[in-house]
Amino acid sequence: MELGFIVMILFYIIIPFTPWVLSLVGTLLYQPSQKKALFEREANSAKSGDTLSTLSKPFVGREVQEFELVMASVVMGPSWIQIAIGGILSLFGGEINTFTKVVDWARREAKQRLREQVASKGFDDVINMRIETTVMSKTRGNKDKTTGVEILVYGTAIKY
């Protein structure tokens, strides 16, 4: 084979499609393995009961020994493949399940990180838990492009 032909194949075929192939691999292999690990961590936490609640006050009859503001966050974004699928689905309107799944995963991950942080510090419960969502975007020209979503979960950790 001629060197020029190899260079042409490299620059016009392989290099432009490499990010898309990596995105596909990430979407089909990496993300499911990370979600499976999250499900296992959630199942382990559920064995001792969920420590997170939106109650504004501790349980009546129990004396609070210690409390602290705790927070956990995660930033997640869709892969290029998910963005492409979401873009096509947005042409028709309605819910875009691709993006719903990414945001759901981010919320579950942030809540699980908070549970693990609270358990590692020896607290019993979290009250007044809140979830904040921030869309991260970049502006190029006159167009805003969403690059990810940050989920912040916080509350008051209590030790009885």
Contiguous helical run count:
3
Helix content: 40-55%
Q: CATH top level?
A: Alpha Beta
Number of strands: 3
Instruction: List low-pLDDT spans.
Output: none
How widely separated are the two ends? 75 Å
Do you know the CATH architecture? 2-Layer Sandwich
Radius of gyration: 22 Å
Q: Supply the number of structural domains.
A: 1
By CATH, the topology is Translation Initiation Factor IF3
Query: Order of strands in the sheet with the most strands?
Result: 1-3-2
Q: What order do the helices and strands come in, and which of them pair?
A:
Layout: H1 3-46, E1 66-76, H2 80-90, H3 97-120, E2 125-140, E3 143-159
Antiparallel strand pairs: 1-3, 2-3
Helix pairs in contact: 1-3
Tell me what the structure shows.
This protein has 160 residues and is α+β, with helices and mostly antiparallel strands. The chain has one domain (3-159): Hypothetical protein apc22750. Chain B (Translation Initiation Factor IF3). It is built from three helices and three strands; from the N terminus they run H-E-H-H-E-E. It has helices at residues 3-46, 80-90, 97-120; strands at residues 66-76, 125-140, 143-159. The chain has a three-stranded antiparallel beta sheet, covered by helices on one side. Helix 1 crosses helix 3. The longest helix is centred in the N-terminal third of the chain and has 44 residues, at 3-46. The N and C termini lie far apart (75 Å). The mean pLDDT is 87.
Quick recap:
This protein is α+β, with helices and mostly antiparallel strands and 160 residues long. The chain has 3 helices and 3 strands, in the order H-E-H-H-E-E. The longest helix has 44 residues, at 3-46.
